[in-house]
Queue: 4 jobs
Job 1
Amino acid sequence: MNNLYLYAINCSEQPSHPSTLSVRKRLIDIVGAIVGLMITFIVAIPVAIATFTHEPSPIFYSQIRCGLNGKTFRMWKFRSMIVDADKLKHLVENQAKGHIFKSVDDPRITPVGKFLRRTSLDELPQFWNVLLGDMSLVGTRPPTPDEVSHYELHHWDRLRVKPGITGEWQANGRSTITDFETIVKMDMDYQRKWSVTYDLSLIIKTIGVVLKKTGAY
């Protein structure tokens, strides 16, 4: 019996997480997404110019990720890596521990991409995912299907809430946290502490972290 089947049984026996049913959280997501998309449209112009100047190619990048209860969706970002970077992933050393991929000075990242990542501007198109309802402003990191395929049963519990543009680990360490089990623990802490007020506090904290470029690479 595989872990996905066990998780499906587990989900059917558990009540939905309160955050997935909160009207106030969804309204904040919609308002935040609209404001975020306005900023995204403005930023897209200089990003497009810088990208085309360095290497004429699409400015947007999309990837299939797993969201609430493991449901897949297409997540959008400003492209920070060379075209077809996913096909070269096996050539890059994974410096993280567990079911997550991290690499300092990843050679696939373009010069423009390094700036986008340091400033977190590459994340802006995800406001579209928030508006669609696939993501939230605050939640857990959305894993790839490849990562999820290796999950143990307790890892699936982190997918009981919507993935977020920011969350517990982004606001409290970001890329300096390279142990997947630590991220899982932080995600579960978020679920236990969740409230609309707590979401707002993480958003405010994330803004400070982004402005200081703390833990970004």
Job 2
Amino acid sequence: MNVNFQNWVKNRQLQIESYLENRLPAENCAPERLHEAMRYVVLGGGKRIRPLLSFAAGELNGADEARVIVVAAAVELIHAYSLVHDDLPCMDDDTLRRGKPTCHIQYDEPTALLVGDSLQSLAFQLMAEFYLTDNPKKQLEMIKQLAQAAGSRGMAGGQAIDLASVGKILTLPELEFMHIHKTGALIRAAVMLAAHCGDELSDDQLAHLDHFAKCIGLAFQVVDDVLDAEATTAALGKTAGKDAEQNKPTYVSILGVKQARELAKELKHDAYEALDRLGIATNRLLQVTDFIVQREF
């Protein structure tokens, strides 16, 4: 990772952290415990991959940063809520997230449930509160797009498939279908919503950009599966080896580590090709793509 890109990543991470800190309710605002827990799970952790993708996508077509950061924050809040619920005993039953106790361990299960609900609501509040485009109809469509990405035809639906697949042997297409929804839908939203904040792109350009986002969403999950199998708990900031312990189907369980790594590289290549077809400068998205696929590889 070159120094200029490293500085860009650091600055964007600080930028989204500051924005989230200012938009989350203060700890001394009633109900204090709920607001404290919301801040606990959102602030001070994570690589902020989805906001980085939003910032990079916004650079494609001159999107106003003040608009892009709203989208980036909304997507990150949805992501944070999903992690809180994912860690609950009724889901993956995990005790560690981003190097610290999970929300239901630090607080309790009812608080964790309400934290997730509240973060999701706050995400849509931001999407409705600020002007993201000069076209109100387009903004309504963007809100709808985020709702679909988070719901039963997106992230929540993918999680349902994941829970139903424990102990089963899935085919590669079945696993891909699951992760297009569970992981990929929100990553695609991070890219596409930011692009909608800028100058109009053609239908062909939007299709190529969406294909890029689909590829990078799958690549992200492949890398996650490899890291879960190979990295330590300290390096991950969450419990390593959890997928194998719970007998979950993963890219590693189906393909093995070596082939999974190769698949990540193939998906990166496909993402590159999709960006090349856009016909505009895509340097920043290319850099973020490398950042995602090569992390700890």
Job 3
Amino acid sequence: MNLFTFFRSGTAHRVRIALGLKGLSATHSYVDLRVDEQLEPPYAEVNPQKLLPALVVDGKVMIQSPAILEWLEETHPTPPLLPSDPMHRAHVRALAAIVGCDIHPVNNRRILQYLRQQFGASEEAVQTWCGRWIGDGFDAYEAMLRADPGRGAFSFGNAPTLADLYLIPQVESARRFNVDMSRWPLISAVDAACLALPAFADAAPLNQPDAPH
């Protein structure tokens, strides 16, 4: 397996965590989003959408982190990232979707670049934008954690699930945009529990070879 990644890509971060949890190794090909390498060959020929990540397995390319994570779960089911009970699976998927559908898409790099370049948004305005949507999503996520009577150390239960793969990269992004995480103590506790595990720590942005040192 070959993962096309960038240290600060939240979507690639999700896949790195999943690979670590499932004990899978992959070579990494680094695509520097800071200089728009994703828009040029050779990566643009790998992924016509020109977004990260892409996972190449036996010469076949998979794009979109939700699809990649589903494939990993289906082909390498141990340890599971989804509970066995259908209602619990729906709950975990809903938590993941708060991040994957409602927070991340409006805060990713191409949206923020458009705000800067087309609307002349200052860095302060960009941070305010990000903080608004992160705040709305994290408020809902925190409320769902609080309402779970059987809540364990992670987003659901006492083992990492798909929800944590989405949450932890988003927490990292929130800190980068100077969002005060003290507002969400339960999310912060989940973040700490996850980062105590090697799969999460090893996948962290600043632990990647392409991160600035």
Job 4
Amino acid sequence: MLNLAIVVLLSYIIGSIPTSIMLSKWVHGFDIRTKGSGNAGGTNVFRVLGWKSGLLVTIVDVGKAVVATVLFARLFWDPTLPFYNRTPFDDFTIIQMICGGAAIVGHIWTMFAGFKGGKGIATGAGVLIGIAPTEFAISVGVFLIVFWAYKTVSLSSISAAVAFPLSLFVRHNIIGDEIHSYKTLIVFSLSVVVLLVYSHRQNIKRLIEGTEKKITALSREKLHGSGKLSQ
């Protein structure tokens, strides 16, 4: 079990790297959590620092989980670990999920910034790339469609997260595609959805109240120097 402990620790540490906080402090001289929505995620970087910084932070946050699920999982993979599934592939998928889950937890509760990080969407996307690229592509498509329709990142992110287990279910049970480790993946993906919905609970409240701001509205506020973004 020592290998498993090392995997979890390394995955949590790489997930904890506070990309947006480091960028905002080192390049712009302030903590991103003091601006905009107060969140350390890529969306707030887009809002406050612009698309270039937002894209950079998003890519790095996605990459953290890809490293955890692809590199760390293989580096410390031990087929004798005590998981009882049908095939070794299923066992390795569980190791990937453990690594990915630890990276997401690290991103949301980063040890390097008082356990106050982002909301885990970009890191969660990295986990999906490493484990199930087909479902990831479907989730990206859902995100883009919802964002095009509503211009709201939180709603788009939640919709994309829900689309992942839903696409797994439809492909396996309705279309009849054979998906390796389906039972393991569906449980894991539902767990990720619960975690990400929990991290977006304030956004959901604002969505219900109709007060969640859209990217277009936020851009106009920034352009005219009004609202929290100009503080």
